[in-house]
Amino acid sequence: MNSSAGLHAKTFALLFVMIIFGPLGDVLLGKGMKEIGAVPSWTLVTFSLFLFRAMTTGMVWLGIGSLLTFFLAYTLVLSWADYSYVQPASSFSYGIVALLGHFLLGESITPTRWAGIAVICLGVLIVGHTPPRTTEIK
After folding, report:
1. pLDDT tens for residues 56-80?
2. Which of 21, 86, 95, 135 has the CB geometry, 3.0–4.6 Å to 70, for a possible disulfide?
3. d(CA 34, CA 18)
4. Which DSSP string corresponds to 99-136?
5. How much is the pLDDT for 7?
6. Is the dihedral of CA 118, 70, 84, 137 positive or negative?
7. Distance CA 127, CA 82 (A)
8. What distance separates the 2 farthest-apart alpha carbons in the chain?
9. Where do the H-state alpha helices sit in the chain?
10. How far, in Å, CA of 99 to CA of 101, rounded?
């Protein structure tokens, strides 16, 4: 495998990790915070209790762990691929967010929203056919 093919394989693998773990972390964190509920008032006591409940909720920690995995993959892929490639390619996550929102959170996704997600994913396919790196590694 030449270095260009290796670069493509590493890039696609980490983009896949980003596309899965970013939305998963967002959904898990959102689900955990909905279980906790809103802060009833902004007094020191109630806010401290709210933070304690947030930091002792498993779903919140699963969300944080998923988002840390996303962040690690994101920083690694940016070390060898162009930002102008990585950011649009990671937009496939919009489709994952909609699917997770529908199946895990019970949200209703309108046809207009699905159409918008399809347009975004089509743009990602176009960007995906360009080289991940256009500059030389220093």
Report:
1. 999 999 999 999 999 999 999 998 8
2. 21
3. 24
4. HHHHHHH-----HHHHHHHHHHHHHHHHHHTS-S--S-
5. 67
6. negative
7. 12
8. 60
9. 3-36, 44-55, 58-78, 83-89, 93-105, 111-128
10. 5
pLDDT band at residue 19 using 50, 70 and 90 as cut-offs:
very high
Instruction: Count up the domains in the chain and report the number.
Output: 1
Rounded Cα distance, 85 and 53, in Å: 39
Neighbours of 116 (CB within 10 A): 13
CB 54 within 8 A of CB 60: yes
Tokens of 109: 């996704």
In terms of residue numbers, what domain contains 73? 3-128
Amino acid at 94: Y
Distance of CA 123 to the CA centre of its chain: 18
Specify the pTM. Answer: 0.79
Q: What's the one-letter identity of residue 22?
A: G
Q: How far is CA 109 from CA 27, 46, 100, 121, 137, in A?
A: 15, 35, 11, 16, 42
Residue 8 pLDDT exceeds 60: yes
